[in-house]
Amino acid sequence: MAKCAICEKSGHHGNKLSITRSHISKRTPRTWEPNLRRVKAEIDGETKRIYVCAKCLKDGKVKRA
Fold this sequence. Notes:
Number of domains: 1
Largest sheet: 2 strands, antiparallel
Distance between the termini: 25 Å
Number of helices: 1
Number of strands: 4
Structural class: mainly beta
Strand order of the largest sheet: 1-2
């Protein structure tokens, strides 16, 4: 599982709940993955390919090459 190189956001695990007749009857395991993009970015003057989440890209925390 990859994670963001800037904020280190990674996936989380939990249960998907099925609600039937006001009772939580079934629980199914699932994962929540971050919205990661593989981009070319300038790090210490070098161009590298890194995984960055969409929020870090939008906030301008990464200088793209």
